[in-house]
Specification:
heterodimer, A: about 850 residues, alpha/beta, 6-stranded mixed β-barrel, 5-stranded parallel β-sheet, 20 strands, extended, B: about 425 residues, two-stranded antiparallel sheet, nucleus (chain B), ORC4 (chain B), DNA-binding (chain B), ORC4_C (chain B)
Chain lengths: ~850, ~425
């Protein structure tokens, strides 16, 4: 139905004409402040005060979309690919995407047709050698717009190109049907219509903070009928591309790669977006109006069927894009079309992609300029494509099931994992300050900047730079030591991240970095194969890897391909100590060889690990050392409060108390964070309890001293006193007899027989019944199980040796004022 | 089936309730501020707020650590269907790192219908673990790792705990590691690197005091409304039961029961015995049932073993006792035999058995565990020459002799060190 409607509406194709740029530019905009732009929370996204009158010009939007660096580069490149204006007559029958169902798009058909095409072309220009291959481009200027991999575009849904082409770029006010002009349009959060501030009843003076819903939607919610004003007769209301997309008359896709076919047409590989209505579960209550899902469905699409750019953003970007225009969408989840399941899009993933993109740009800087020289590279990429396709096929075919947990480091079948429905509570709820505090105090959340370790990080940086930047790259070793939780690994990794960005910027030479954790290796020897895999990507057995590595790092092999210096980070180095210490020796010996270009950073806890090793190892390792001392309380306080910046959940004294307490014991930052997190949990638990019982939100709950105290108590206090207090009467008598016996004899160890005598005399003197030896033995064994006592197995019966596991003062303290056995006090 | 006796049905209902820990511990879930609500808060906050957590459940055996955990998981699975998967490991079975990782991979594969290969190496399995944690985190799925007998996982290098807890601090996943242990010092057993990564949340399970027992008994024994029992039967049964439970006599029984062991599982065993003693013809529980159940769960195995001994065996035991009193260092069958032979000389009796008969009796004593070899050395040697020890004390032996129906007077005298 929607399609027929649309057929009527749009009349003339306006393909070749460059789009009119709107005169309205940024200086007309009042820069709005999104209330929640500071926090990256996925919840509570809104951009109701959209101030643009029309779609923004592409240039500013693009540069905000790309990283500034890549934008600068792209501008350079885009001069080279010819901006073509395809003739209107040549509408290729194969070009538009298949119409009916996305899921049944078949690659084979298309490729067959393509082959036919290419054959034709071959016949025509048999002499021309150059055009026989697909030519991949980073950037294509097409139809007046600039397209590159990673951009999002609208794609026409229908093959007959007559319908979709009128493209109202100017959004109109829903009331007066005039374009925004210089006035401000405000967007309703519910129906997404735009309104002039003046056209509203009552008119608004300024864009309100927070959610805003238009009077029509309010009326509809209240059950009243309030029609939108009808446009004047003879004038149709033009639908914007956004409206068409959300009513599934258009498609949105992400360009994965671009190429020029042999016949000169431009194609791209599209990764489809899907609107919530098209998923298996349909629109869910928490879906935002502008939400899209990224799918894992790909297709090859001709450039001709694109309309223009749209902007699909991550929630964080979306929250910040206050005036992004009408073509801005939010995408947080990936939709698995085969299994109908959802998965969040990993932030790390996108970061990695960004990194790769930059590197890629570097790599084909030259290759894109000359399409010939790029042919090698392209064919490689093509081969990779084919592989990928084959992989996909083999995955989908159930004939050859692949084990998920084996297969040489590749893991298959994980696409099956995914939520069938996105849980509602995660998105529709607003986080309280305590909950925010809890999530930011997690060990897994990496802080934006490391505090308190500047000196050490500088030292590591100078060490690595000194080693890399020298022309011949002397091999060196650095030994980093310090007690757990003092930020050793984190600092080294932060340094490596900084260096990587410097590599990207081109100020230092590229290097390769291998990170290994000693405790995660199956055996110390395995480290060879892990290193080799990290360097080359091939997996071999450790013996072969050792030989290969020896050859690689040895002197003779001067003409090897990979001349980058190599940085090896070995965490938990002490786990590599074998009996003859051969593994450590080998690893630490490589850097000393000339031309090895290997740098080893070892991390361990003990200060004197080199001294404990053989002299030939300690002489290689012990020269440069770096000590991470335990944090003192000011540093811990700084670490915690830097994480809690902007969140009003903790009293200041509480943080200081926690950090002083931890600094006095261990100086372990993890411990301090965990204490604070636990305190926040305790406070949150309390808050939720009171909210349940009293049902009125009585003020804000902050984590205070009492909560920190409770958390510390839970962590540091051994539970034995509580257990002793709550155990049965006979167990108490038993323990008292142990203490009595200890005082009497002065020897910690006693036997069951002696103890039973004491117990029976206790019982006889105080009017308790003596339950018999067997019951007593059972009680003793139970105490031994909890490790209140250390005891031999119960089969030894009267010969069983017993000893208190905790200091007798603790036991005395716990038993002194027990209510049910007041007479115990006189024996202990 | 014909007409069923309502008493039999009631018995069946109560027994099946006692055997079902989920039902028993649902009593504790109603209490405010119980371990149930704390644990549920910890795990559910991990589910709803997408964070990692680790917690240790400590407490003596029989206090319901595992049962409460099961109850929490059951409730959470109902609340958040399809969002939680549970991986269960037991220290007795999976204390070996390699096999623990393999088991984790197997259970995860089962849960998500992935193909599992048992040939996969340690490396591959640990990589699989990391990527599955990450994927599940992205799909808002929580993995709960339950490590029973947590203390046994702390043997060796603790690679499993390290890789689990290290994943918690590096991968943005949502997983909960729940350790269950009866050792109170379980967190002290962790290696320093592992301990630093462990969150040190501890929940202590204590045995409940006597007042709770009565309410728990009511919770279990009172017949429910929605059973297929006739209404008047149920009413009279419940009324009688409440009378008993409120009575002083029952309190005495409970006190006696809690005197040695006040854990919930002990109470359950007691109630089970009591219900088994229920008289079907009267159709209700009586205080007598509870009283007779008490001795049947407080058995005295050594005393009972003595009761079944033959007179000759008692003679041998007494001889060993006498040797012990004389402080003979090394005692084996030959020296016992010597002592035994010396008795008839001083007291003119006719009980004089041949050596091989005595040896047979002695072997029986060994098998009953009243006597044991001193050490495990010399297993090739024949029984006669290996040094042995008496395992019961003087008091127990005397008690046994007194309760023995046809004990010769001579034995008492011998016990009293005459002759």
């Amino acid at each position: 139905m929607a399609e027929t409607q649309q057929m009527k509406k749009f009349k003339t194709p306006s393909k070749g004409t460059p789009r009119a740029k709107h005169p309205i530019s940024l200086d007309h905009h009042i820069a709005p402040q999104t209330p929640q732009s500071a926090t990256p929370s996925a919840i509570n996204l809104r951009r109701s005060h959209r101030l643009t009158a029309a779609t923004p010009e592409h240039r500013p939007a693009l540069s905000s979309f790309n990283t500034p660096k890549s934008a600068a580069k792209t501008r350079k490149i885009c001069e080279d690919p010819p901006s073509i204006l395809p003739t209107e007559t040549s509408i290729n029958p194969a070009s538009p995407p298949p119409v009916e169902s996305r899921k049944k798009r078949k690659f084979q058909e298309k490729s067959a047709e393509k082959r036919k095409d290419s054959r034709n072309v071959k016949c025509k220009r048999a002499a021309d050698r150059k055009v026989k291959k697909k030519v991949y481009h980073k950037k294509v200027v097409y139809d007046g717009g600039e397209f590159s991999a990673g951009h999002d575009v609208y794609v026409k849904r229908r093959s007959d190109a007559s319908s979709d082409d009128e493209d109202p770029e100017v959004e109109e006010c829903r009331v007066c049907f005039k374009p925004a002009g210089r006035r401000v349009l405000i967007e309703c959060d519910d129906c997404l219509n735009g309104f002039h501030l003046k056209c509203l009843k009552p008119p608004l003076k300024a864009v309100p903070d927070g959610d805003w819903v238009c009077c029509y939607c309010v009326a509809r919610k209240n059950g009243e009928v309030m029609e939108f004003p009808e446009p004047q007769a003879g004038k149709k209301r033009a639908r914007t591309a956004r409206e068409k997309l959300l009513s599934s008359d258009l498609w949105a896709a992400r360009i994965e790669s671009l190429w020029k076919e042999v016949d000169g047409t431009y194609w791209f590989r599209a990764r489809w977006y899907i609107i919530p209505e098209e998923t298996a579960v349909g629109r869910q209550p928490h879906n935002l109006r502008r939400e899209l899902y990224r799918t894992n469905d790909f297709a090859d699409v001709e450039m001709e069927s694109t309309i223009r750019h749209c902007f699909v953003m991550s929630p964080r970007e979306f929250a910040n894009a206050a005036d992004g225009g009408d073509d801005v969408f939010l995408c947080e989840y990936e939709y698995e079309v085969q299994w109908h399941s959802f998965k969040r899009i990993a932030e790390i993933d996108s970061n990695e992609n960004d990194g790769e993109k930059v590197v890629d740009n570097d790599a084909d800087w030259n290759s894109c300029d000359e399409s010939d020289s790029g042919s090698d590279f392209n064919s490689e990429e093509e081969a990779a494509y084919e592989n990928e396709k084959r992989n996909r096929l083999s995955q989908s075919s159930s004939l050859r099931p692949v084990a998920a947990n084996s297969r040489k480091g590749q893991i298959f079948g994980l696409q099956k994992i995914g939520a069938k429905k996105i849980p509602e509570n995660l998105r529709s709820r607003k986080q309280t300050d305590l909950e925010k505090a809890k999530s930011t105090l997690l060990l897994a959340t990496v802080p934006k900047s490391l505090t308190c370790r500047d000196r050490e990080m500088n030292e590591i940086t100078t060490f690595i730079k000194g080693a890399i930047c020298d022309e011949q790259c002397l091999g060196r070793c650095l030994y980093v030591h310090g007690v757990p939780g003092t930020g050793k690994t984190m600092s080294v990794l932060a340094v490596m991240r900084n260096l990587k960005s410097e590599v990207d910027a081109g100020s230092i030479r590229p290097y390769c970095f291998v990170e290994i954790n000693g405790l995660k290796l199956a055996s110390p020897e395995n480290i060879y194969s892990v290193i080799y895999e990290g360097l080359t990507g091939h997996r071999v057995g450790w013996k072969k890897a050792l030989n290969l590595l020896n050859a690689r790092f040895s002197d003779e092999n001067k003409c090897r391909k990979d001349t980058r210096p190599c940085i090896l980070l070995i965490d938990e180095l002490d786990l590599l100590v074998t009996r003859n210490q051969a593994v450590l020796y080998n690893i630490l010996d490589w850097p000393t060889r000339p031309n090895s270009k290997l740098i080893v950073i070892g991390i361990a806890n003990t200060m004197d690990l080199p001294e404990k090793l053989l002299p030939r190892i300690s002489s290689r390792m012990g020269i440069q050392r770096l000590c991470f001392g335990p944090y003192n309380f000011q540093q811990l306080q700084e670490i915690i409060s830097s994480r809690l910046k902007g969140i009003d959940a903790f009293e200041k004294v509480a943080i200081e108390f926690a950090s002083r307490k931890v600094a006095a014991v261990s100086g372990d930052a993890r411990r301090a964070l965990e204490i604070c997190r636990r305190a926040a949990e305790v406070a949150d638990y309390r808050a939720k309890k009171t909210a349940l019982s009293s049902s009125d939100a009585s003020g804000k709950v902050m984590a205070g001293m009492a909560d920190v105290e409770a958390a510390i108590k839970e962590m540091f206090q051994a539970p034995h006193i509580q257990v002793i207090r709550s155990c049965s009467k006979l167990s108490k008598i038993f323990l008292a007899a142990m203490v009595y016996e200890l005082y009497k004899t002065g020897i910690g160890e006693t036997t069951f027989e002696k103890l039973a005598m004491v117990v029976s005399s206790f019982c006889a003197n105080n009017g308790e019944t003596f339950p018999g030896y067997d019951t007593l033995l059972k009680v003793g064994c139970k105490l031994g199980e909890c490790r209140l006592l250390l005891c031999e197995p119960g089969t030894r019966h009267k010969l069983q040796k017993l000893q208190l596991n905790y200091p007798n003062d603790d036991v005395t303290f716990a038993l002194k004022d027990s209510k049910d056995l007041p007479w115990l006090a006189k024996y202990i | 089936m014909g007409v069923e006796n309502p008493a039999e049905v009631a018995k069946f209902i109560i027994r099946s309730r006692i055997a079902d820990p989920l039902f028993v511990y649902s009593y504790f879930s109603q209490l405010p501020d119980s371990n149930y609500s704390k644990l549920k808060y910890i795990i559910s906050s991990s589910v709803t707020e997408a964070c990692n957590n680790s917690v240790l459940l400590l407490g003596p055996r029989g206090c319901g650590k595992t049962a409460v955990l099961e109850l929490v998981l059951e409730d959470l699975l109902k609340e958040h269907p399809d969002m939680i998967s549970v991986v269960k490991l037991n220290g007795l079975l999976h204390s070996d790192n390699n096999c623990a990782l393999k088991e984790i991979a197997r259970q995860v594969c089962m849960e998500h219908q992935l193909q599992f290969s048992k040939m996969a190496s340690f490396d591959e399995n640990s990589k699989f673990l990391l990527s599955i944690l990450r994927e599940c985190g992205l799909a808002h799925k929580t993995i709960v790792f339950v490590l029973e007998e947590f203390d046994l996982f702390t043997e060796g290098k603790q690679r499993l705990l390290y890789s689990l807890l290290d994943a918690m601090q590096s991968v943005s996943s949502q997983a909960v590691v729940v350790g269950v242990s009866c050792r109170l010092d379980a967190d002290q057993l962790l290696e320093k690197r592992v301990r630093s990564r462990f969150s040190h949340r501890k929940l202590l399970f204590l045995s409940s005091p006597g007042e709770d027992f009565q309410r728990l008994a009511e919770h279990i024994l009172l017949l429910p409304m929605d059973s297929r029992l006739p209404n008047d039967f149920r009413a009279s049964f419940n009324e009688k039961l409440l009378n008993i439970l409120a009575g002083e006599e029952f309190k005495g029984v409970v006190d006696q029961l809690c005197y040695s062991d006040s854990t919930v599982s002990h109470l359950l065993r007691f109630l089970f015995c009591a219900v088994c003693h229920m008289d079907l013809s009267s159709g209700s529980l009586s205080i007598q049932n509870f009283k007779s159940a008490l001795p049947s769960i407080q058995r005295q195995p050594k005393q009972e073993a003595l009761k079944d001994c033959s007179v000759l065996q008692l003679y041998l035991l007494v001889c060993m006792k006498r040797l012990e009193v004389k402080e003979v260092e090394l005692c084996n069958f030959n020296s016992i035999m010597k002592e035994y032979k010396s008795i008839p000389d001083s007291f003119q009796t006719c009980d004089n058995f041949a050596r091989n008969v005595c040896l047979r009796a002695f072997e029986h004593l060994l098998q009953r565990g009243l006597v044991s070899f001193q050490d495990n050395r010399g297993q090739g040697q024949s029984t006669e020459f290996r040094p042995v020890k008496l395992l019961i004390s003087w008091h127990e032996l005397q008690q046994g002799l007194q309760s023995f129906p046809s004990c010769p007077v001579l034995l008492h005298k011998l016990m009293a060190r005459e002759g």
